[in-house]
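We emphasize that the prediction below concerns an isolated chain of 222 residues; any contacts that depend on oligomerization or on bound cofactors are therefore not represented. The input was used exactly as deposited, without trimming of termini.
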Amino acid sequence: MNKSEEAEYIPVELPGRGIRMMETPIAEMQELIDLIIPDLMEVATTPFVFFGHSLGAVIGFQLAWTLQERQLPIPDLLVVAGRHAPHKADPSTLKSGLNDQEMMDELKRLNGTPKEVLENKEMLKFLMPMIRGDLRLHESFVYSGQKLSIPMVAHCGTLDDEADMDIMSHWSLTTDKPFQIRQFDGDHFFVQTLGQRYFEALDCTITEIINQKHNKLSPDWT
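Result of the prediction step, given as a C-alpha cell string:
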C-alpha cells in the first residue's frame, strides 16, 4: 500500500442487524468469531487491517487473537476505538439487564442515538432487542491473558469519559508489538460525528504503518 492506494473497507454485519435482521443474534463472543473466520479467509488479502469501535474493538481483538492462535493469516494492524482495554473492568453503566427506561436514559447520556429515535416508541420497541443483543455479546467476552503479536493503534474521543486517553492507553499491554494512541475531538461517537475527516486520518494511519512494516522501517512510536 502506498499514498496512491486507498484502503478498501469491508464492514462486518452481524446476525440480527441490517440486512441480516431476520437472523438470530449471537450472544457468545467465540461463537461469533468462529462464524466470521471462514468468510474472512475468503476475502482477506495481504496486507489487511482490523478496525473496531466500541463492541467492534473487542470483536476485532478476539478475532485477531483467534487467528494468531490457530496459525492462520493475521492482520498487519489492529485499530481499536472507544472501548476500554480487555483486561480492565468495564466502566460503562449501559448493561443488558437494564429496564427500558434505564436503557433509554443511558442512550441519551451517550449521545449517539438520534432524538427522533428516542422519542419514537415504536422505533425503540423495534431496536431494543438489537441493543440488548449487542450488550449480551459484549458481556460474554472473557479476557484470559490474550496478547497479540501485531502493532496496535488506539483512538479515543476527548469527551468520552468511559474511554479517554488514560483508559485507552491500557491497550498497550495487550500486544508485544508497537503501540500508538491518538485523541480526536468528540464524545464516544466521535467516529460518526467527524465522518470523512476521521476516515481520512484513519487512512493515513493505516498507510503509514503498513508501509513501515513492509519496508522494514522502524516505527517512530512505541
